[in-house]
Every structure is written in structure tokens, then in C-alpha cells.
Amino acid sequence: TSEPIRLEDRIRDIQDFPQKGVLFKDITPMLQDGPYFRAAIERLAAHYSGADIQAVVGVESRGFIFGAPLAYLLNCGFVPVRKFGKLPAETINIEYALEYGTNIVEVHKDAIKPGQRVLIVDDLLATGGTVEAAIELVEKLGGHIAGVAFLVELSFLKGREHLKDHDVFALIKY
Ligand code: 5GP
User: ipTM exceeding 0.95?
Assistant: First the structure.
């Protein structure tokens, strides 16, 4: 009999990326390993089966990698939240603070319907600023945040506290 898949075995630490002093959690080894990637998506889908998710929102760009197959399994649509200037139709946008400077993300105005039950997905929760921006965009369009899902949560950064009104789930916690 084979061992159960431990997803953390396919996450590697990269020192000083993207800048000195940062320990980056690299998820690409998991993406490269078929059974691991599949297990990650299936575990997320299992967590939300029965949650009546009506749209999955993925945050550019690693949120797309997990959000799209998750939407497929949950039999709902996928909505991209993109960096400023990438979406062709009418959008709403929001600016949020990064460690240095700010970033703007946006979503198509007609991508979420009022009352729609939305699951937000990204690869990793650090301070929570990125996903907080995505939540605000969805709520501005009248969507209901049914859940916020991550592959990895860096618990020591307390990002969850920024998302405290919401149901937050992560497959791996550090
Ligand atoms: P936050 O806004 O929560 O501080 O940062 C999370 C965002 O930055 C996510 O979109 C995530 O992709 C990216 N990010 C920050 N740190 C890491 C890391 O160590 N590993 C990975 N894979 N992404 C990170």
C-alpha cells in the first residue's frame, strides 16, 4: 500500500526571494508532480462540495492555477481578478498596500451577479492584503463570499485576522 500524499513534501523554501530576508514558499514542485497537484485540487473540492459555490474567483496569477481546476470540479464558472490594465471589458478596480508601494487589481463588472455565492482562491495567505482586495471587489458587485481558500497559510503573519468575517480554509499551515 502506498503512503498518503503529504502536500508539504512538494513545497520548497527559497531564501531571499523576491528580496533579501524573505523566505519564499515555492509551490512549483507540487504543480510538477501530477498526483500531488491532483490531490491538492481534489482536497479543496472536497472541502467545498455541498457548499453551493456558484463562482470561483482566482487572483492573478497563481490563484488562476488552483482556481480554474477547482471551478471545473465544482461545476461552476471561473472569474479572474487581474492586475490593472489586463481585462478588456468594463471593470471596477481597487488599490491596496504592499510592503513597498501599492498594487491595483480589477475584475469585470458583469463577472459576479448580486447574491452569487463566491469562493475566492489564491495559492498562499501571507498578510491577507491581496485577498482582502479581491473580497472587496466581489462585495462591491454584490457577491456573497462563501469561502476563502488557500493552498498554504503562513499563520505567523496573522493574515486570517484581516479576513475575520469570512470562512478561511488552507490545506497547509506554517
Ligand atoms: P499577502 O497579500 O497575503 O501578503 O500576500 C499573498 C500574495 O503574495 C499571494 O498572491 C501570493 O501568491 C504571494 N506570496 C507572498 N508570499 C509568498 C510565498 O512565500 N510563496 C508564494 N507562493 N506566494 C507568495
Answer: yes
